[in-house]
Design a protein that fits this description.
- It contains no helices and 24 strands.
- By secondary structure, it is an all-beta fold.
- Strand 20 and strand 21 form a beta hairpin.
Length: 324
């Protein structure tokens, strides 16, 4: 598996040394004032709304945190758990899926945005990573090495009906469900280079997600499904690109000497959250897709990364029954 902070998993020599990151020894928390990397234009604070979930080791262990989209009101969400990673919001924005554990044994959990309802939904001796919600919130896609190598699986949100969708030699991981529910994008190294494929969640039929030989990992669909953000592998780590869902119109969004990882869309489709070591430590950033201006949000010594932007559906509409 790709190297990930706190759980270093590398696919042979192909990407060793350029994927993932290593945290420093945690220090006292720094100010949460957002800033831009030196010399870069700074956009206004995001008005996209919602919360951004992210992973931080500021309290000594990788835990799940929430903050406002402008970087304010940071609060810890998970308590006494093994190191956590890769948060993913439910379509209604009320719950998060994430994984917790070690590289050898990691399980998938659910938690509500208020910190209640912690539920473990996989109980497997192997590692289970990268949960991604189906648009109807009934299933999760995830990656697991339970059959000896990393492949793509789906299961119901109550942990039942685990099915393997992808079974190929090499590495298949980082699944992301498309907004219309018809495809699950994922990264694969079966050709010897990182590529993006898609699989039908019901039939298991596969096809390239982007025209070949486009290389990349970490696919992320825009809210309306019209665009795809992803990481391009570079000599220094990752850059970020955006392309139309049909594979046309690819454009670079963030390309620096640093590494910019795991892009995730804002609810309004105007910005991407990601994390980068551009300022010497791993921090969460937001980039404006129209202007290219970017700003750092989570600022603390050590690691802040793996952001996930809460869907706009998180604000419930009052119903006649009074349900909230």
């Amino acid at each position: 598996m790709w190297a990930v902070h706190g759980q270093r998993l590398v696919s042979g020599a192909l990407l060793a040394g350029i994927l993932g990151c290593t945290s420093s020894t945690p220090e006292p928390e720094a100010s949460q004032q957002a800033s831009s990397p030196p010399g870069l234009p700074q956009p206004p604070a995001s008005n996209a709304g919602g919360l951004i979930a992210f992973v931080s080791d500021r309290d000594g262990v990788d835990a799940l945190y929430l903050m406002q989209a402008d970087g304010s009101n940071v609060r810890r969400l998970t308590g006494a758990l093994p190191p956590v990673s890769h948060p993913s919001w439910s379509p209604d924005g009320r719950r998060l899926a994430f994984n917790a554990g070690s590289p050898a044994a990691s399980d998938i959990y659910l938690i509500s945005q208020d910190g209640t309802g912690l539920t473990q939904i996989t109980r497997n001796a192997a590692a289970n990573f990268y949960p991604s919600w189906s648009p109807d919130a009934r299933r999760l896609a995830f990656s697991s090495n339970r059959d000896g190598d990393w492949d793509i699986f789906v299961l119901n949100v109550d942990g039942s009906n685990v099915r393997q969708l992808v079974n190929s030699p090499g590495l298949d991981d980082k699944p992301q469900w498309s907004p219309d529910g018809s495809r699950i994008g994922f990264a694969t190294t079966r050709s010897g280079a990182p590529e993006l494929h898609a699989v039908d969640p019901d039939t298991g039929l596969e096809q390239p997600l982007l025209p070949q030989p486009t290389r990349g990992i970490n696919p992320a669909w825009s809210v309306d499904g019209s665009q795809l953000a992803y990481n391009i592998v570079t000599s220094s780590g990752f850059d970020i690109a955006v392309v139309a869902a049909d594979g046309t119109g690819q454009r670079s969004v963030v390309a620096e000497s640093a590494s910019e990882e795991r892009p995730r869309w804002s609810p309004d489709g105007r910005s991407l959250a990601y994390y980068s070591d551009a300022e010497g430590s791993w921090d969460v950033y937001v980039v404006d897709l129209e202007t290219g201006a970017r700003r750092s949000l989570a600022k603390a010594p050590g690691f802040d990364g793996q952001p996930a932007w809460q869907p706009i559906a998180s604000t419930p509409t009052p119903s006649s029954s009074g349900e909230s």
